[in-house]
UniProtKB/TrEMBL annotation:
Its main location: membrane. Pfam families: Fasciclin. It is a lipid-anchor; GPI-anchor. The keyword Glycoprotein applies. May be a cell surface adhesion protein. GO terms for cellular component: plasma membrane; side of membrane. This is ARABIDOPSIS FASCICLIN-LIKE ARABINOGALACTAN-PROTEIN 11, FASCICLIN-like arabinogalactan-protein 11. Keywords: Cell membrane, Glycoprotein, GPI-anchor, Lipoprotein, Membrane, Proteoglycan, Signal. The keyword Membrane applies. Residues 39-184 form the FAS1 domain. It comes from Hibiscus trionum (Flower of an hour). One of its GO terms (biological process) is plant-type secondary cell wall biogenesis. Belongs to the fasciclin-like AGP family. Residues 1-29 form the signal peptide.
Length: 238
């Protein structure tokens, strides 16, 4: 009888060990999840189109490209991107790009992104000023106006820049990327230059950082808690 009891005890202990081990290893293997067939790769599309090295560099260094991929994954209203060519950047006043701080670089890139998919023949349906992902489209902020003419001629006006949509690089019903031969210069970034220091970083971005940080912390805490549970389970099973 005593042997039987010991035997049962052993089985119980072993299975407990096995399951707690299983739990620990499955939870630690949880992240990162395998990537599902994702949205179109903006960077690859631009690389293939060949004359967008500066815009690509900006998209990457500001991490806007990662952000857009995330947003496209969430399958919202899609995106429209106006991609300035390298020549467009070289036509900026010399040193203009280097003079921007990180915040302004992000704003400049986001100003070239509209948070809806707009087919080339639908720009006449857009009401002015169009809202870009740089934010406020109010006067002196980030307004972007569009006018259309026959033959899909689309003209973009920022208050500083006036240029046409020069071609379609990509369009799939969710993401449209159009070529522009001028960098779209937002008033907020380029007009306020001579009138004092750069504007303070936006509140919204700070809030986003805080949210990001607390998310990271809760993940750490979660993992610590799991680790503790695993350790206790392991200790109990000995
Ligand atoms: C953009 O359009 C709005 C509304 O029509 C107008 O008030 C504003 O002056 C325009 N801005 C530019 C730069 O064209």
């Amino acid at each position: 009888m005593a042997i039987m009891k010991q035997y049962l005890n052993l089985i119980f202990t072993l299975s407990f060990l096995f399951f707690s081990h299983l739990h620990c290893s499955t939870t630690s293997a949880q992240s990162p999840a395998p990537a599902p067939p994702g949205p179109p790769d903006i960077i690859k599309i631009l690389e293939k189109a060949n004359q967008y090295t500066i815009f690509i560099r900006l998209l990457k260094s500001t991490q806007v490209s990662d952000r857009l991929i995330g947003e496209l994954k969430d399958a919202d209203d899609g995106k429209t991107i106006f991609a300035p060519t390298d020549k467009a950047f070289s036509n900026l006043k010399s040193g203009a790009l280097n003079a921007l701080n990180d915040e302004q670089r992000v704003e400049l890139v986001l100003y070239h992104v509209v948070p809806i998919y707009i087919p080339l023949n639908q720009f006449q349906t857009v009401s002015n000023p169009m809202r870009t992902q740089a934010g406020d489209s109010g006067d002196g902020e980030f307004p972007l106006n569009v006018t259309t003419a026959a033959g899909n001629t689309v003209t973009l006006m920022t208050g500083l820049t006036k240029t046409r949509v020069a071609g379609t690089i990509y369009a799939d019903g969710q993401l449209a990327i159009y070529r522009v031969d001028r960098v779209l210069e937002p008033l907020q970034v380029f007009a306020s230059r001579s009138s004092g220091p750069a504007p303070a970083p936006g509140k919204s971005r700070k809030a986003a950082d805080v949210a990001e940080n607390s998310k990271a912390w809760s993940l750490v805490l979660h993992n610590l808690a799991l680790f503790a549970v695993c350790v206790i389970a392991f200790a109990l099973s000995l």
